[in-house]
Amino acid sequence: MSTVPPVMFTVSCLASKYGxxxxxxxxxxxxxxxxSKSSSLQKKKAKAKAxxxxxxxxxxxxxxxxxxxxxxxxxxxxxVKKPDVxxxxxxxxxxxxxxxxxxxxxxxxxxxxxxxxPPIIPGGFQYAMTSxxxxxxxxxxxxxxxxxxxxxxxxxxxxxxxxxxxYFPEGDYNFSQLPFNLGTPESMEAYEKEASHLANxxxxxxxxVLFLTTHSDEDRGxxxxxxxxxxxxxxxxxxxxxxxxxxxxxxxxxxxIIFYVCGSVVTNPQSFNGxxxxxxxxxxxxxxxxxxxxxxxxxxxxxxxxxxxxxxxxGFPVSSAARVALNDCGMLGRHSNIILVMWQEEALVVEKxxxxxxxxxxxxxxxxxQCPQCGTIQKWVGGSADEVSLPPKTYSFSIPENATQxxxxxxxxxxxxxxxx
Length: 421
What we know:
By secondary structure, the protein is α/β, with parallel strands linked by helices. The strands form three sheets. A nine-stranded mixed β-sheet has the order 5-4-6-9-10-11-12-14-13, sandwiched between helices. A three-stranded antiparallel β-sheet has the order 1-2-3, with no helix packed on it. Strands 7-8 form a two-stranded antiparallel sheet. It has 14 helices and 14 strands. Residues about 1-45, about 45-65 and about 380-390 have low confidence and may be disordered.
């Protein structure tokens, strides 16, 4: 399915077009003024970029004032161009005044309208009223175990790459693939050299998404790091991720990491503790994992496409975007729970999303396909087949402690639950 990027951006802050910086938008944009961990990480990264001598990426050409010329008459245009005038975008005005509606004037000086009458805004909201089409320079990186089958991870990452690339027709987008083999000193040295070079290349990108594809040990939760004498070897999750991410630390800081790894890395407590330690050390914005025992990567694509659209393209925080993306993802919910590790107010938070259906997965507990008592295969509604005289087989489940039922994806029989771990 091809995706056509939107041709009209109905919500955008044009302050910079009038000699003002976009930060002059009093309410600001999420990716600039948010007090979340991700925002502070991006500011820190921006300072590091400024200190380096790396050439900056090409910025999109400014749009002239002709667009606002249809809204502000020529005789009043000089008023909005004065140095002390600040612009408040439509979205920010709506967010601040939605409970106490006020006329929208757009341009203000000392919090007072510059124009005598509200300008007439053409068009309408093509996205959610609080979203922004604001794709900052973005890099997508696929880290994968050297020699892994081409059907594992590669097709799914390629689909998401094609989706994102359409939003960057004039550049400011990079897609890189980096295989790793950390089994021997020689292969590790080669990887570190390539990874360091890639990190230097990607330092100029504001947003980085990393996919990690490898195998995991079903019993211990260890991750496969490479090969010794052509035989695959696994290592503790903490040790493996430290080796893998250290050469990329400059871009991992503030990035989003998606694990294309089977669920033992989550279900094994020691392994998952290693994931959290890595999050504390490298400070990515978020880490997303799935706990299915044998993860079917194709099931994750619809969810990840919506998630990347909401975070990378529209600029929503990961915390809210992860919930919005649950709509119409019941098939993923049947297969796997979703684990989100993220920063909120300088603290590391772990959220678990699990799907529940009263016939298939009551309160997140998967029911057996066949009744162990009567042998029939049917809906679990309480009762065995009519011709069987045995009493009906029943199971009792309670909603998990601290679980919250979400409206996203809710139907008559199913919904998603959110649990803070």
